[in-house]
Amino acid sequence: KRSFMAGGKTFQLSEKALDNLISQVCSPALNEGLLKANERMYNHLLYGIAVTEFVDGKKVNPTIALIDWEHPENNQFHFTEEFTVLRSGGVETRRPDIICFVNGIPLAVIEAKSPAGHGKKEPTIDEGISQSIRNQFNDEIPQLFVYSQLLLSINGHDGRYGTCHTPMKFWAAWREEDITDAQMYAIRNHPLSTEQIDALFAHRPPADRNWYQQLIAAGELAVSGQDKLLISLLSPERLLEMTRFFTLFDKKNGKIVARYQQVFGIKRLLERISTRRPDGGREGGVIWHTTGSGKSYTMVFLSKALILHDSLKQCRIVVVTDRIDLEEQLSGTFASGGELAGKKDKANAMATSGQMLAKQIGSGKERIIFTLIQKFNSATKLPECVNTSPDIIVLIDEGHRSQGGENHVRMKLALPNAAFVAFTGTPLLKEDKTTNKFGPIVHAYT
């Protein structure tokens, strides 16, 4: 958009402001390394860029959005192949196979390898991943990856995805849960217009167009693993969703993009938390994700998603564990993932005693609180330890443990309208007490 609002009126951006905006987007500083530059650009994408304008002689600083996150249809989506990028040395070039642009910004880069694998037996997906990792090196084309949010490697049959600086071993497969097989099939076989076919084949040898026309004439096409990955991650709404809600920067582990079980677990949780019980409180439930599936990061992604969710951004979070080492681990993950702003914020979030917990619950303003379940025993003996707000989300780590006794009852009395969400990696039986206490299984990954 080339306009901004001030005093209830719409004004056009000045040439100077436009130049400044373009300069900030097109000239990213790489002196602190690619990851830092990528994080800065991510924040520009997420929150917009402030510019200086003058309205009736008064200085104003409107924030200009680069992407309309709320209305995907207001953005422009393009892709191109064999996009030439000059290497850092300024002589040689690299040509990533496919680049996907949103409003002219290259958000996704795809390496597409031959299914034949050059006559080798090695998996060609790994070749694409290696190439993508190499292209991020300082002497390669890091300037392209300043903008990248999703990186894909495909081989005609299947594929995996990662993001900026993802090590090869963490590139992941995807399993779709929301888009049905029928919808996938319809998208795969949706006929291209004459204009689209011309755009794809006008610059190619006639044999390529003939091959495509014969392929289509032979009947409807089956949906491959590659098709599922591309449709799942690169449909406009999902690409924006993955970028906005399911990407974070961790001080220890770098940039992280969520895996499919985290994405769908959080989506189901947001739906559940948004639902009210007959008494006005929020609904909760159980997230059953097997050990090693990234449960701590799922909590951090949820915390981030709540802030960006219009109807839930006012919610506070209480993280409950039953062991000091788990409490330290989780608070460390939240801090490292950017959900606690520095040491002071982390210190304020920790309920170091029952008395402090009572104060935090009753009159505190902390957005996130960490406590041991045992502290509710002494906290609830204090009259201030009660909060009837429905805008409190209680996340219970390893919810199958330590939740059967008096402390659990006290916790629910202190927070009668909160949503209680239990996370567990332990196999659950049909009549497991965990589900009875917290509600149904909201999402399972076993």
From TrEMBL:
<feature type="domain" description="Helicase ATP-binding">
    <location>
        <begin position="276"/>
        <end position="445"/>
    </location>
</feature>
<dbReference type="Pfam" id="PF18766">
    <property type="entry name" value="SWI2_SNF2"/>
</dbReference>
<dbReference type="GO" id="GO:0009035">
    <property type="term" value="F:type I site-specific deoxyribonuclease activity"/>
</dbReference>
<dbReference type="InterPro" id="IPR027417">
    <property type="entry name" value="P-loop_NTPase"/>
</dbReference>
<dbReference type="InterPro" id="IPR040980">
    <property type="entry name" value="SWI2_SNF2"/>
</dbReference>
<keyword id="KW-0680">Restriction system</keyword>
<protein>
    <recommendedName>
        <fullName>Type I restriction enzyme endonuclease subunit</fullName>
        <ecNumber>3.1.21.3</ecNumber>
    </recommendedName>
</protein>
<dbReference type="GO" id="GO:0003677">
    <property type="term" value="F:DNA binding"/>
</dbReference>
<keyword id="KW-0540">Nuclease</keyword>
<dbReference type="GO" id="GO:0009307">
    <property type="term" value="P:DNA restriction-modification system"/>
</dbReference>
<keyword id="KW-0378">Hydrolase</keyword>
<comment type="similarity">
    <text>Belongs to the HsdR family.</text>
</comment>
<keyword id="KW-0547">Nucleotide-binding</keyword>
<comment type="function">
    <text>Subunit R is required for both nuclease and ATPase activities, but not for modification.</text>
</comment>
<keyword id="KW-0067">ATP-binding</keyword>
<dbReference type="Pfam" id="PF04313">
    <property type="entry name" value="HSDR_N"/>
</dbReference>
<dbReference type="InterPro" id="IPR004473">
    <property type="entry name" value="Restrct_endonuc_typeI_HsdR"/>
</dbReference>
<dbReference type="GO" id="GO:0005524">
    <property type="term" value="F:ATP binding"/>
</dbReference>
<keyword id="KW-0238">DNA-binding</keyword>
<comment type="subunit">
    <text>The type I restriction/modification system is composed of three polypeptides R, M and S.</text>
</comment>
<dbReference type="InterPro" id="IPR014001">
    <property type="entry name" value="Helicase_ATP-bd"/>
</dbReference>
<keyword id="KW-0255">Endonuclease</keyword>
<dbReference type="InterPro" id="IPR051268">
    <property type="entry name" value="Type-I_R_enzyme_R_subunit"/>
</dbReference>
<dbReference type="InterPro" id="IPR007409">
    <property type="entry name" value="Restrct_endonuc_type1_HsdR_N"/>
</dbReference>
